[in-house]
Every structure is written in C-alpha cells, then in structure tokens.
Amino acid sequence: MANYSYLKQLFFCALSLFFIVGLVNYLINPFNFFDVERLHGINNVKPEASKRIRLYKKYQPLYVKPNVLIVGNSRVEMGLNPSYSGFEHLHSVYNLGVPGIGVASQLLYAERVTEKNKISRIFISIDFLDFLTTQNAVPKPQVLTVTPIADKYAALWSLDSFKASLITLFNQNEFSSNRTRDGFNPANDYELIIKFEGQQVLFAQKISMLNAMFKNKVWDQHLALSSEYSDFNVLKTTIERWTKQGINITLFINPYHEVYYDTLERNNLLPRFNVWRRTMHREFSTMVSFCDFTDLGYEKSHAHLNSEELAFFWEPAHYKQELGNIMIDRMLVGCD
Amino acid sequence: MLFNSFEFIFIFFPVTLLIFFALGSKNMHRPAMAWLVLSSLFFYGWWNPAYLFLIVFSMLFNYSLGTFLGNGTANPNTRIILILGVVVNIGLLLYFKYVNFFVAQISIATGLSFNLQHVILPLAISFFTFQQVAFLVDSYRNETNEYSFLHYSLFVTFFPQLIAGPIVHHKDMLPQFLQPDRLKINPHNIAIGLSIFAIGLFKKTVIADGVAPYSNIVFDSAASGDPLTFFDAWGGTLAYTFQLYFDFSGYSDMAIGLARMVGIVLPLNFYSPYKALNISEFWRRWHITLSKFLKDYVYITLGGNRLGSLSRYKNLFLTMFIGGMWHGAGWNFVFWGVLHGSYLVSHQLWANLTCGWNLNIPISIKRLLAWSLTFFAVIVGWVFFRATSFDGAVAVLHAMGGGNGISIPNAIMVRMGDLQYVLTDFGIQTYLGGGGRFLYTWTWILILSPIVLTLPNTQDLFFKQQGSLSKKAFDRNNSLWPLFGVIQRIQWQDNLMWAMIISVAFITSIMTLSQVSEFLYFQF
Q: Fewer CB in a 10 Å sphere around the end CB: N or C, chain B?
C-alpha cells in the first residue's frame, strides 16, 4: 500500500507544482504577455522581456489599447518614449518598435493592432538598413503567425518563463534591461555598459557589426519600385490603406550618429543612402507628413572616443530619448 | 517519437500501458505481448513508416536463422549459415550507415563525382543489428532457448530500449517476457519506473538541453573557421562533456524507467563514468551494454588475451576502432576510436610497467592525478566526437592549448577590480561582447562538475528496488568519489520527500517541452 500512497503524493505534488508555476509566471509576467499590474520591487522592471519582444508585441498592444502607434525597429523602440510630455494630448501612445525585423513585418504588427483597436495616428520610422537587400534577392510576402493559445501556454508553463520570472524577481534595479507597459525600451542595459566599460565599447562593437551587416548589401531601386512584395511597395500600399481608413500617418527617417555615416561611406553605401533618402522623400512626402531627421545625426562630439558620454546617442545607430523628444516635437508641429 | 515529447508522455505511453494491463489482467498473455510489439512498431514507424519493412525483415531473417542454428542438430553447414547471417546483418548496417561516407571518400580520392541518392540511416539500426548478431552467435553456440516469434519480436522491438539502447541481450530479456506475473499492474513497479523516468527526463531536458547551446556555439564557430579563445574552447568542450553525459545517462534512465513500468528490468548502461580513475574503468561505466557486446562478440572473437600481451593489445585496439566506427561514419569517429584504443593499450602497458613500483606518493594525490589524466583524455576524445570536421577538432584543441592566446570578455575584466591589472600583466587580453555567454557557460560547468563527481547515480539510488539488472551499488572501485560518506546515505524511498523531489524533476522537465519558441536574435 505504501506504493499507492507514494503515487498519490507524487500526483498531487506534481499537480500543485504545475499550478504554482503557472500562477507565479502569470503574476510576475516576465515577458509582458498578460495585463498584470507592475509592482515596485517585484515585477516593475522586466529584465527578460527583451528576449521575447517579437512574441509579446503581438499581444501587449491589444490590452494596452492605444490610439497612437509608433512603428519601427529597435531605433524607435529605445528612442521615442510614449510617456514624453509632448505626447500628452494624444492620450494613449504605444511604441511598437520590434528589433531585428524588416519593414513589411513591422507593418504587420501594426496592422494587427489597427484591426483590433481604433487607431487615430501612426508614426512610422524608416531605416536605410531595412531597405537593403542582397544582390538578386526576390522579395517574398511576409506573414505574421499568431498562435495565442500555444504562446500563452508557453508563457505560463515553460521553464524559460519560470527562469525569467525568477530573474525578474531578483533583478529589480535601475540597470536591468526593461520594457515599459507602453512598449518603450529605456536602454538601462546600455547605461550599465557605459558605466563599467565606457561608451567607446558600444561604438566599437556596433561599428564592427555594421561592417558585417553592410557587406554585400545593395539598395536596388528598380527592385524596390517594381516588386509587389518589396518593403518599399508594402509600405506604400499599407500607408494608402491606412490613410483611406482615416489614420493620420507621419513617416520619418531615423537619425544616425556621424560615425554611422562614416561607416556607410567606408562601405561605399553613402551615395546609395542619399539616393534612397531622395526616393523616399519623392514617393511619400505628397502622401503623408514626411520628416527626414538625417541632419540631427551630426552630433559634433567625439566623446565616443573617450570616457565622456554623448548627449543624444547610445552608439552610432541608436539615439537616446533626448533626441527622440526633439524629433517628436518636430513631428507634432509638422516637418513639411 | 521521442521520450521527451508531449505525444509520447501524454498519449502514446499511457494508452500503451492501459491496454497492456487491461489485456494482462484478463490473463491474455499473448495478446498483451502482441500489443507491446504493435505499439513498439508504431513507435518506430512514427519516425519513418518505410523503415518498418527493414526492421520486420531483419527480425524474420534473424529469427529463422537463429531457430535453425539453435535446433541442436549437428550440421556441417551451420557455420556457413552463421557467417551468412552475420554478413547480411553487418552488410545492411554498413550499407545504411557508411555508404555515403565511402562514396564521399572515393570521390575525394579519385576526383570522380558519383550521383548516388543520399542514403538515410534508419533509426536504431546499430542497436537492433548488434542485438540480433548476438542472438545468432549464441544460437550457433547452442546458448539460446526456443522462443516464439512473438517473444523474439518483442525482444528486438521493445520500445523503451529500441532507439538508443541499452543494447539488451536475449538471455536477459526473453525469460522476463515469459513470466505471466509481469503482465499485472504493479504499483511498486509503476512507482519505481515513474521515478526513474522522471530523473532521466530531467537529466535530458533540463540539464543536457540546457547546457547544449554553450557547446554548440563553440563547435559551430570552430567549424566555420572562426578563431576561438582559450576559455571559449575549454568552456565549449566541457559543456559538451556534460551535455553528452546527461543526454545519454538521461536517455538510459528513461528507458529503464519505462520498461520497469511494464514490469521489465533492463540492464545497467551508465554508472558515473566521469568518476573513473583509469580509462578501462571509464569503459566499464560508459555505455556498459555496448562495451559488454564489444568485449563478448568482438574482442573475444578476435582472440582476446589468449595469444599473449601483444595480441591482447592489438585486439583491444581493433575493438575500440570498431567501437569508434559503430558510433558514426566519419574520420572523426575513426580517430576517436583509435584514440580510445591507444588509451586502453597505454593504460595496460602502464599498469604492467608500474605494478612493482612503490612510489612514496600519498594515495589521495595519486588518485587525483589518475582522475585528472583520465578525465582529460576523455575530454580530448569528446572534441573529435563532437566536432563536425577533423580541422574543427584540431582548431578547438589548438585553442584549448592556448594557441590563440588567453582572453576574457571586456565586461568581465572591468568588473574584476585590481585583479584586472594582474591579469593584464600575465598577458590576458580582452574582447568585446560575449560576457553573458561566458558567465552562463562557466556557471553551468561549475554546477555540473560537483554533480557528476559527488552525487549518486540512478543505480545507486534504486539498487534496493533492483533499478536495473546490475547488482552495483555505491561502487567506489577505481573511482574518485568525494564526500562519499555523506552521499551514500542518499537512497530513494517511497515517502513524501521523494515524491516532492520527483515531482519537481517531472514538472520542470515537462515545462521544457513547451519552451517559448523564438530564436534568440542579436538585439538591435
């Protein structure tokens, strides 16, 4: 009979543990999957959310219910803060910046939100790097796969989630990576690197990454304008559709630090960058409000070479919210 | 179908078990056995139904030959029949396992290109071939009994051991299948089987799969020609050393646990090999059933130690060479086998040379040196076992030897305070990025090292419940076992504390089956 008793204990322990883990993962909510209150010192900072952005940004905007979206990649994610006072009159702004994905995919995330929420205004950032392709690339249609049951089951009952919950619980400090409820990345982890290693480390690492990324990349204007599924044409058709729906669109080119332009030049891409800018301006400035912030990139400081921290840039490709605030002010007034 | 999958744990196995016991409770012995065979074939066919024909043909062929060889009648042709049987079995194995490799080598040597279709290796062929070769040889030696085809089929296909062992012997398995009391549901067996399975599942899904990314990235870098740092190479190799240990040991535990739930006790396949003080002891503890097969059917067939020392060394070397080839088709596996053959021969020579020596070295130092040398030799072997090319393996070893200098991530160095100046004086350099990976890799290694060295294995935990067919328990022969006095008190019992431990292992493992599936891309 002892074995029966052992099996019963085993069953109840396993079942209890299963529910405890689910409850902990739900309450700590390390990946921002659920609309759970953030408590200071418990789960206010989300150090692990950065690892699941592509997943949770399919769901978070649906419960935040914004009426304004900021669309783009990691640059806007850590550059434009929805909590900036300049945005106050727009009610609820959500930063839908998703790192590491192309323009067509970024727009799919936004499309999903516009289908479920009443959106009045969208700020779309465009980035030269996202429009570069490899030689003879054939653009394919992008799809956003949404599997809410599987995703939420995994968010509640996966070891990843439980580990993330524990890390969240024990890393509630100002230097932990974080993603706010409105989708913003305050770049706390960059602050930590700058504190210990200096900003020059971020510059050195980014330049080497950029050199690798720019290798064998081209801006094929003919392909962009002719192919139905090119990022350029997807952007154009999406903007046309949203405009027809009465959504106010602002399209803007992200600024870079001057070192980024030097890197473009070293990779023989600067002339193409300028052609790209002109094309974007020509094609979109008549359709929507268009802002080119390239001029904001020339921060006349070489602080990245010494220990002094820059005012407007984290590293060559990513600007700080201080510069983002200037951009927001300009966009709200109108750049045209 | 994998043991560590939802469909196996929550559908296949419970359904198999329920119907098996339902048939068994009505004393329907043959239908219950037939159900297990059918379930096992379904389990095998889940991967690729086309290869069911291969395993069924293999069983029919070997059963017919084995029955003929074992009928006891003196026949001058029996030796030829045996040779034919072994040649067909090994021929099939050679074809499926090595034809791609041989064609590639011939292409390289001749410069000719052969447009042959790529041959896919059928799952488990290495295991069921060896099991059936042993059956044929023993039938020839009149060491088998008469078994029905049904029981023989179950011996070959029994799903807990079909895919990755243990390599079972007919003498161990078939008598168990014939005992009708094993068909009845037995809470004792369920409790033990479930507990052993949960431990195995934890080893595989949480530990082996958890540490795997830290070895993969290093060996992938080596394969693509990226230079490795000293700590990266050591970290990746040690991570793989533990990954392989927990992967294989976990799988063996799962097999033993599953079989136990249907009342079958499997042979021991793993017994804390990283505690071994010499390479011979390592092979008595690592993949025990393969070592036993190679010893009984290769080493002894080659002559064993009957023809003097030189012949013994040659046979040892050849046996390990074949063992290396068995693991896979590639020069790295050949070299790994040759390396272990050399290790075994060197160990025998050293043991002979030093048997009369009386060095005044404390025993603890001697044991530590012996363990370090053995572990180092095993680690070097794993580099060849894991690397995808010979050049890749050499690149990893080159970095492990400090050939690329010694450097650590800048993020770690700057947090070392004044120690960073000392390290810089010693020529230790820094590089950007990789701080997190460095930290995680070495944290895993620091946690897993004492686990493999001090904790009891599943056999030790369950020896009182006859966890396997082995009688081993807390065996310290030729091994290093720190904290043995404390550890030997740890044994499984059917109480609340163990129910909690096992449920933690089980639920943690189950949670790995639904990991949030997203690539960890480089941010920004």
A: N
Other CB atoms closer than 10 Å to residue B300's CB: what's the count? Answer: 14
Q: For B409, which residue in chain A has the nearest alpha carbon?
A: A197
> In sequence order, what are the beta bridge partners of A217?
A134
Closest CA to B256 of B264, B247, B248: B264
- Mark yes or no for CB contact A10/B504 under 8 Å: no
Contact B523 A9 (CB under 8 A): no
Q: Is A90 left (phi over 0), alpha (psi -120 to 50) or beta?
A: alpha
Active site residues of B: 327
Listing DSSP states for B164-178 in one string gives: T-----HHHHHHHHT
The ipTM (two decimal places) reads 0.85
Are B507 and A18 in contact (CB < 8 Å)? Answer: yes
In the structure encoding, which two tokens stand for residue B231, read together?
């700590």
Mutation choice for B interface testing from A1, A7, A10 by most B CBs within 10 A: A10
- What distance in Å separates the CA atoms of residue A97 and residue A127, rounded to the nearest whole number? 12
Say if CB A122 and CB A238 are below 8 A apart: no
Q: Which residues, in sequence order, are CB contacts of B449 under 8 Å at separation 6+?
A: none
Which 3 state secondary structure label does DSSP give A67?
coil
Question: Which residues are B430's β-sheet partners?
Answer: B408
Residues of A in CB contact (< 8 Å) with B are 2-7, 9-10, 13-14, 17-18, 21, 31, 50-52, 54-55, 74, 99-100, 150-151, 153-155, 157-162, 193, 196-197, 201, 204-205, 208-209, 317-318
Which residues, other chains included, contact A233 with Cβ-Cβ below 8 Å and sequence gap of 6+? A224, A225, A227
d(CA B88, CA B5): 34
Cβ contact, residue pair A10, B499, below 8 Å: yes
- The three-state secondary structure class of A250 is strand
Q: What is the pTM of this model?
A: 0.90
Interchain proximity A159–B520, CB inside 8 Å = no
pLDDT tens readout for residues B158-214: 999 988 878 888 888 888 888 878 878 899 999 999 999 999 999 999 999 999 999
State the distance between the two ends of chain B, measured CA to CA, in whole angstroms.
38
DSSP codes of every residue in B59-120: HHHHHHHHHHHTT----TTHHHHHHHHHHHHHHHHHHHHHHHHHHHHHHHHH-----PPPPP
B321-377 pLDDT per residue, tens: 999 988 888 889 999 999 999 999 999 999 888 887 877 888 889 999 999 999 999
